């Protein structure tokens, strides 16, 4: 099922899933801006305040951040010090990305998932609500921590597959598509 110019099915599926989630969640930014604009107009024009609307902006921001993390990883958008990285060959970059995924991404992601499981489950046990009378779904917001970890792990698997293909010479290497500003 694999040719020299095509990713394996699993890699294509994982990348496709990450793309769908990332592109879908990006539309939430527009809604978040509209709600924030409405909050400002309500407050300064009509002297009205809505805790639910204010909290909804926080929920949307958290959702964009947490569900967009895997998409950002897919597109190499996370912060990196690439003074040496960009000068390496495709194989050298593949080794750094592979080791970074195996030794940093996976352990940290699993640690956060395991550490936050009790935090999330205790929130679900009491169906935690906003203490300010806002959105009654704090437990749902906290659940995004585990969803983010799952999405990062899935994309991490895709990253490992991609780097192994590059190291085996069965996929083209990535070239950093951003310039350093010195």
Strand/helix succession:
HHHH
Radius of gyration: 20 Å
Q: Please state the overall shape, judged from the principal axes of the Cα atoms.
A: elongated
Query: Helix count?
Result: 4
Number of strands: 0
Percent strand: under 5%
* Sequence stretches where pLDDT stays below 50 over 5 or more residues: 1-5
Largest sheet, strands/sense/barrel: none
Q: Taking all residues together, what is the mean pLDDT?
A: 89
What fraction, in percent, of the residue positions are helical? over 70%
- Work out the count of structural domains: 1
Cα(first) to Cα(last) distance is 44 Å
Q: What structural class should be given to the helix and strand makeup?
A: mainly alpha
Care to describe what's here?
The protein has one domain. It has helices at residues 9-46, 51-74, 90-125, 138-167. By secondary structure, it is mainly α. Helix 1 (9-46) packs antiparallel against helix 2 and helix 1 packs antiparallel against helix 4. Residues 1-5 have low confidence and may be disordered. The N and C termini lie far apart (44 Å). 70% of the residues lie in helices and 0% in strands.
Main traits of this protein?
single chain, about 180 residues, mainly alpha, elongated
Please give a quick description of this structure:
The protein is mostly helical.
Task: Give me the secondary-structure topology.
Blueprint: H1 9-46, H2 51-74, H3 90-125, H4 138-167
Helix pairs in contact: 1-2, 1-4, 2-4, 3-4
Function: Part of the tripartite ATP-independent periplasmic (TRAP) transport system.
Family: Belongs to the TRAP transporter small permease family.
Domain Tripartite ATP-independent periplasmic transporters DctQ component: 32-164
